[in-house]
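go over whats below:
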Amino acid sequence: MGFLRLLARIMGRIGTFRSYQFVLLLAAALAVVAFYYFGSERHSFSSTTKRIKQTQANTNRNDADLTVDTRMLHLAVSDEQGGEERDEAGEGVVLGSRRGNTEAGGQRYHALMMFTKVDKSRSLQDKFRVAMLSMAKHGHFLEGEVLVLHFVSDQASRELGQKMLQEFLQEATFKYEVSFHDVVELTQKLFPIVEAMQKHFSAGSGAYYSDSIFFLSVAMHHIMPESLTHMVQLDLDLKYRTNIRDLFQEFDKFPPGAVLGIAREMQPVYRHTFWQYRKENPQTRVGEPSPDGLPGFNSGVMLLDLSAMRASALYNQLLKPSNVAKLAEQYRFRGHLGDQDFFTMIGMEHPELFYSLACGWNRQLCTWWRDHGYGDVFQLYYRCDGPVYIYHGNCNSLIPDD
């Protein structure tokens, strides 16, 4: 009604105005009409502003995603072409650099490393640098062959590892792929299999869920697909002095029945751990130094024949909780080194399951036990004749320069 009264008053005065004044009044009236009309619509200034902000937010999210994708793609692209795919094991993202076009049926060499909490440890980052740079320096593979590097990792370490690998492997002359496996997912698969043995071979008392990952090698044949037949598992604190491809050739030397290749322990660790059994059995070879004794194993470098592990009735029987407990009681064994302890214990009873790697493939440098009660016999364990292919800087030992 206010609008009509206003319009009537304007029309009543039209006759007294000049033409230009009439035009101005008409424009003012139309402005009032527009204000009332559009002001009553749902799309007000405030709602429009909100839509603009939402659009900007969505655009920003898309930009963030694009940034992540670009970074991942940059890591994945080779000199010629690249992309993302799933690895043969069906776990994690495969990122290939210098990957090229792998021929169908080309030979793949699989190596796995634990890569957890690396983002929080400068020491582990430095060890990883030494390992990867030396591997890239000495590694050579034939045409059509690919080295597949598997890393068991948490999310933060994975993100760091992707950046580090891009730097460390840029001089590699061989084709490779990288696959990150989520540590939580693997632990969920492992825990039901290894829970019972953890109390015998883990630090502290009880079986902690998080400790399961330290038994990955024990049950890897159960959680990896059957298409994956061989795996080399490696510690991070290694320095390679020869072509890692040569290590894989050791699989050809496995005797019938062997499921795992591993080097002997080069300290009197198990002379100490088996002390009660040795006291009760003074003539035993258990814990004695090589070549005649059984010094136990070191898990810094391991060759896992996953097909043989799956096929071995004996090995899979030894994984059963009752048999683990029986052997632990028989040998009075209580360890804290995870898979290494398990392999050492069953190796005392069933050495036929193991192929003995030459000490040069895992030249351990730790001398802790020399200064803690075993100085008189230490050198009997520590001695390693022959060429050194891989240095193992266990217990934070310094690794010699080339």
Notes: Residues 94 and 179 are 5 Å apart (CA to CA). Residues 45-76 form the longest helix (32 residues). Confidence is low (pLDDT under 50) at residues 31-103.
